[in-house]
Amino acid sequence: MSTLLSQLAETKAFILSKVKSASTVGIILGSGLGNLANEIKAEVAIPYAEIPHFPLSTVEGHTGTLIFGELNGRKVWVMSGRFHFYEGYSAQQVVYPVRVMHMLGVKTLLLSNAAGGVNTSFKVGDLMIINDHISMFTVNPLLGKNEEALGTRFPDMSEPYCKSLIEKAKSIAQANQLELKQGVYTGVTGPTFETRAEYKMIHLIGGDAVGMSTVQENIAAVHCGMKVFAISVITDLGIREEENIITHEEVLQAAKDAEPKLTMLFKELIKQVS
After folding, report:
1. Which of 49, 97, 124, 147 counts the highest number of beta carbons within 10 A?
2. What's the average model confidence in pLDDT over 11-15?
3. Angular region, 105: left φ>0, alpha ψ -120 to 50, beta rest
4. For residue range 91-146, what is the model confidence (pLDDT) as tens digits?
5. Which domains does the chain have, with CATH numbers?
6. Four-CA torsion 94, 100, 105, 107, nearest 10 degrees
7. Rounded Cα–Cα distance for residues 271 and 73 (Å)
8. Cβ 207 vs Cβ 237: under 8 Å
9. CB–CB of 119/171 below 8 Å?
């Protein structure tokens, strides 16, 4: 057994020693979006620091807790806080929790993030369903020896975000008078926010939003055979005429303001996950 598979087995065994039931649904919450965790009737909450081989969240707005419990009548695994390449972790470390969820039996993964708006029609506070992504600016987490126990050497990425889940989300939004955007998410390494020229380039190549997470998690999840739904909260605008200095504090506040809409959407969506 490889080192990675041995580590995953250890992590799985530790987590299952704390949990008495199971779930096929996982959620990863992004910057400033951790309050959804308060909606969960938690059975177990494990700080990342206690979980074997787990990295630690070092970014403000990421609490760093793995929660298992009930949300809107469904059992769920929830990561309150994620890991980023810019924190100094390898791409493989960034996606380690996704692979752990796979080992725990997760089949459907819901991702959220805070992102910069590149589409000129977007405004701060919009929710954008990610229907595709551009990953050329990030390190692919599948580099190196392939673990056949996790997935194929060359996974197909023609549908990285599940179309049926997107349609369910759109129906939920329509029924609740919630406006949703759709678009392409461009993943970058960070931690710097983009220059004006970079925003323009991302716009030109087809990006509607840009952020420093999600893409690597998606690749690992698709590799493992999961269905993925992802949504961005547009927390700042990259293309505009006036001066647009962006701070992390502003991003967190915008995410917090939009969180009730995201919470409602996720609560309704997990009810419809088969």
Report:
1. 97
2. 97
3. left
4. 999 999 999 999 999 999 999 998 999 999 998 889 999 999 999 999 999 999 99
5. 3-271 (3.40.50.1580)
6. 0
7. 7
8. no
9. no
